[in-house]
Amino acid sequence: MESGSYKHLLVEDRGAVRILSVNRPEALNALSGAVIDELIAAVEAIADDAAIRGVVITGAGPKSFVAGADIAAMAPMSPSEAMNFAGRGHALGEMLGALPKPVIAAVNGFALGGGCELALACDFIYAAENARFGQPEVKLGVIPGFGGTQRLLRRVGRAMALELCLRGHMIDAAEALRIGLANRVTPRGEVVDAAVAAAAEIAEMGPLAVAKAKELIHQGADLPLAEANQREIEGFAGLFDSDDQREGMEAFLGKRKAEFKGR
Ligand code: CO8
């Protein structure tokens, strides 16, 4: 799909960083099936584009990142339709984790339900001061279906995940930072710039090394420590077969900036 052909996504490139903004202002950027499909198409396009070295996901407008899955679209769903919907959300989450480039959530307002889950599926979260996070699904008689119970458990620990998913209350940016849900809090209006700056900084690093570190950290979270450490040893050694390793170390020793080629 061409960048210009999305109905619910705005796409902007700043250098090597692509910004994807969910754009459904009439529903505070809620995720319909069509939005999920467009996000999947946009991530596929990024995977195929060597010029794009980092991704920032945000919500259009000043008020909301993503206020959840679209409640009007979900209300009439049958169990099998709900299964399909949650499955597509999870497919998107898997793709973001598998993308060999950093994906940063720039949370600029409400990140509720599927919105909090979308942010959790990114590699890390920057939050504006006005960000609000929550998993309010229980108020609607359902549960998170896009990774909330599991990614939240792994990000903030069992008791915090239980409180968030069972009480369904909202927390502010400072609390999200305190519990390790968000990595950083920025002034209102500056969160996208901060996330783009971080992604641009990462884009200057060795791309093979960035991809390998991301892969090992994501995989290692679900592996026994000894196996994960063994994969690190192999990943570390594998990079010594790359031009980038030679260039990075020679550049350091020659007191010049490295020119990485990604091979
Ligand atoms: N779905 C559909 N429409 C929404 C949603 C949503 N999640 N959130 C807001 N809207 C709409 C409102 O209905 C309203 O529309 P209208 O103007 O036509 O009445 C418009 O956006 C503006 O919203 P409000 O007037 O309510 O704005 P407020 O500032 O008063 O309140 C809130 C903002 C607090 C964010 C409020 O809108 C709210 O509570 N929204 C719902 C939040 C929520 O419950 N989210 C979780 C949904 S369940 C979920 O995400 C499950 C995910 C699991 C599967 C995912 C698979 C991909």
Tell me what you see in this structure.
By secondary structure, the chain is of the alpha/beta class. It has two domains: 3-203, 2-enoyl-CoA Hydratase, Chain A, domain 1 (Alpha-Beta Complex), CATH 3.90.226; 207-253, Lyase 2-enoyl-coa Hydratase, Chain  A, domain 2 (Orthogonal Bundle). Helices cover 47% and strands 16% of the residues. The chain has helices at 33-47, 71-74, 79-98, 114-121, 148-156, 158-167, 173-178, 191-203, 207-220, 225-238, 243-253; strands at 9-14, 17-22, 54-59, 64-66, 103-107, 110-112, 124-128, 132-134, 170-172, 184-186. A hairpin with a 2-residue loop joins strand 1 and strand 2 (17-22). Helix 9 packs antiparallel against helix 10 (225-238). The longest helix has 20 residues, at 79-98.
Features:
263 residues, binds octanoyl-coenzyme A, 11 helices, six-stranded mixed β-sheet, 2 domains, Lyase 2-enoyl-coa Hydratase, Chain  A, domain 2, alpha/beta, globular, 2-enoyl-CoA Hydratase, Chain A, domain 1
Which parts are unreliable, with pLDDT below 50 for 5 consecutive residues or more?
A: none
**Helical content, roughly?**
40-55%
Number of helices: 11
Q: Approximately how much beta-strand content do the residues carry? A: 15-25%
Taking the sheet with the most strands, its summary is: 6 strands, mixed
The CATH class of the largest domain turns out to be Alpha Beta
Radius of gyration: 19 Å
Query: What order do the strands of the largest sheet run in, or round the barrel if closed?
Result: 1-2-3-5-7-10
N-to-C SSE series?
EEHEEHHEEHEEHHEHEHHHH
Structural class assignment: alpha/beta
CATH fold-level label of the largest domain = 2-enoyl-CoA Hydratase, Chain A, domain 1
CATH architecture of the largest domain: Alpha-Beta Complex
Output the CATH homologous superfamily of the largest domain.
2-enoyl-CoA Hydratase, Chain A, domain 1
Give the strand tally.
Answer: 10
Question: What's the number of domains?
Answer: 2
The first-to-last residue Cα distance is 28 Å
Approximate shape: globular
How confident is the prediction overall: mean pLDDT? 97
Question: What hetero molecules are in the model?
Answer: octanoyl-coenzyme A
